[in-house]
Each structure stands twice: as structure tokens, then as C-alpha cells.
Design brief:
With 92 residues, the chain is mainly alpha-helical. It has a domain at 28-89. Helix content is 57%, strand content 7%. The protein has 4 helices and 2 strands; from the N terminus they run H-H-H-H-E-E. The chain has helices at 2-5, 10-23, 31-51, 58-70; strands at 74-76, 87-89. A two-stranded parallel sheet has the order 1-2. The longest helix has 21 residues, at 31-51. The radius of gyration is 14 Å and the shape is globular.
């Protein structure tokens, strides 16, 4: 959605998504991940409020919850994730 809002070409976005899906493990949203996503959403919202950031999206909570369930790392430059143990930080 971010890239559509920024006016990126839809074919290019599709190519990026295809590459990502081929290089990653896809995980279903089930009851466990829904519950963990709710906990992650509360944590991210509190962290955002304390850090003066805008409200994180539901997608952020789902990504964080999935990383925790899969014992994986989130490779990101999104400030909502900065400092979390599941994060490999890009930037600065």
C-alpha cells in the first residue's frame, strides 16, 4: 500500500512482492498469531506513544507477532521496531 500511495508502478510492486514471496516463508494468520498480534499491537502503540511516533499499523503488529512465533528477525528501518530484540535495524 505504501508504494501505491507513493505512485510506484503496479507491475514493479508485483515484481517486488513476487521476489519477496520466493525468498521468504509464508505463514498463515491463525488463532495463535492473532492473539500474539493483539499483544504486539498494544506494545507497539505504547512504544510509539512514549517515543513520540505516529500510531503503528496492524501490519506492524502482525509482522512482529510472526517474528516472535517463528523466532525470526525483522529486517527494517521502521522506527516502530527500533530497539526490539526481534529487529535487525537498517539505517543510521
Amino acid at each position: 500500500m505504501k508504494y501505491l500511495k507513493e505512485g510506484e508502478d503496479q507491475r514493479l510492486i508485483h515484481t517486488w512482492l513476487q521476489s519477496i514471496s520466493e525468498a521468504t516463508q509464508l505463514v498463515e494468520v491463525d488463532i495463535e498469531s492473532a492473539e500474539e498480534s493483539a499483544r504486539a499491537a498494544l506494545e507497539l502503540a505504547r512504544k510509539a506513544r512514549d517515543g513520540g511516533l505516529g500510531t503503528p499499523g496492524l501490519g506492524d503488529a502482525i509482522v512482529l507477532a510472526t517474528a516472535r512465533i517463528c523466532r525470526a528477525q525483522v529486517l527494517t528501518g521502521d522506527p516502530h521496531f527500533k530497539g526490539l530484540p526481534e529487529t535487525q535495524w537498517l539505517g543510521e
